[in-house]
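Write out the 3D structure for:
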Amino acid sequence: MQRRLKALSPTVLALLAFVLAAVVMVGVAAAAALVIERRSDNVISTRLAEEGLDWINVDTDGLQVILTGTAPNEAARFRAVNIVGSIVDASRIRDALEVTPASAIAAPRFSVEMLRNDDGIQLIGLMPEDAGQGGIGEVQLADQAAALTPGSEIVNMLETAAYPAPKAWNSALTFGIEALKRLKRSKISVAADRVEITAISDSEPEKRRLEADLRAIAPNGVALVVNITAPRPVITPFTLRFIIDAQGARFDSCSADTERARKAILAAATAAGVTGTPLCTIGLGVPTPRWADAVTQAIAAVATIGDGSITFSDADVTLLAGTSVSQATFDRVVGELETGLPDVFSLTSTLEKTESASQGPAEFTANLSDAGKVELRGRLTDEMQRKAVDAFARAAFGAEAVYTATRLDETLPDGWAVRVLAGLEALAQVENGSLLVRSDLVEVAGVTGSQSARSRITQILSGKLGQGQTFRVNVRYDEALDPVASIPTPEECAADVNAVIARTKITFTPASAEIASTARPVLDALAEILVNCPPMTMEIGGYTDAQGSEGGNQALSQARAEAVLVALQGRRIDVSGITAVGYGEANPIADNGTEAGREANRRIEFVLKGSNSTVASTDTPAASADADVDADADDAAPAQPGPEGGPDFSGDTSPSVAPTEKTIRPLPRPADAAAQEDP
């Protein structure tokens, strides 16, 4: 070995030493580069995290710093490179960043607000520049608005944008213009998918009629939110008339100034023998805040005598006791009433006496037939009075409808013409009936299609005849003659829906949301009911049994509820207030351990939700209806994609009434009907 080492020349030894030194230097350089890479990575990553730039990936290769990732925009990329350049030399940075492609500018949301009042119409909003074929542009909209209020200037603050009209825009705008024609005091907000209407009507019947008309002409696919209010009427004179006779206790007219007063008056009437819930109008014009105190005392007085009437016309009060009342009872009741009434009221009291004259009193009569023909007979004072009465009747009933066959009698008492004209004005409030005028009595009888006709007749007679005059109102309300009564309430609609689906089930294809063809008659029957209903908020709830996964059952129930909603929408039903909700296997109504129980749990429920902004507020709890659904193996297969449900809208316009809901289960179905369905 020593010999071999000796044989190595100095040159070889030097070369070996150089190679060893090179290896050592390479190792040191590699270690140094690794330290620099880690330090650069840590420092840069920490700084970028502090700046919130978490979308950048930092890689190091020796002295090079490589940046990768996708910047939201060019400015963000430039900022990131500058931040890294402030930490390491810019020559060491390798920029591999990408930038998110710029998206097209979205079209603006088009909407128009149309405001109408006695001063004219204002148009505000943004419209598409291109309305499309047959569409309504800015100029056409302004022209149509101007045609509604000729002579007044339109305030046009409309702007346009160079984008095409959205789907359903033109139909929504056309509907908004039609609503503007019908509502003289309103604000109508139109968007492509939604029309909101806020308006004031003159009365509650007009409000219900307007709501029904708007719902009938609303386009499909456009949500309709209606808030029409009916202000309290001004009642002149402020009138109330309460009677107890052989027909029982009743109101001919009832007025109150507050809800509290109305409840107190109706409570007193109930204690006096009135049944049901009489109509009592809350209005303006009360002569004193103590109206309810006076009326409740007067009703109690009539109940005490048992045969008579009390009439309030503003502060004038007339008590009429029947012939069966004794003088002692009459004197006692009148004395107590005079003492108890507030000072503002003036009481006139009369005790009727039995007729003893051999000849009947002078009379004037008018008979109004079903065809609208009026026959005037009886006595008038002179020719001038005859012409005046004839002219008044022709103005009230029509020139061709009046037949006059009266005689003249100069001995008639003073004020006879006033009594005749007041009676004819009252008779004009009924569909058919009769008028009797005597010196001691004015009586109007007949049939009417207005629930407020009796009250209006009482106001006319009490106001025109004056305090202490005797009159009778024998007017019967006939619902068949009432155009408003033909519009069902939401509760009535819910009850009708319940009756239909209690008889026949809505069926689906097993394990899917497709409605079976055999269910079409049921849906047609439901549509026939709902098309005549007022705007209301209703929920279609879908339920399954407990078999299968919870998520699958929920999805299937949602799809089925939406399928029912779409089927109703396809039958031209306004679904703007109807929502579809799937509850899956929640809220079972029967035992899921039996086939009969599972079949009962597979169902669709229709639930009326509280009060709608377009439905009149009531004190009656909301009704609802539900339907069974027949479908095999709700959980045997995953739910099939259901059709898209209709829009979810609500329009509560009754802040004074808390929303309520109640579900009415369907009536039991006959055994043979259930046996014909699949389990």
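Confidence is low (pLDDT under 50) at residues 611-679.
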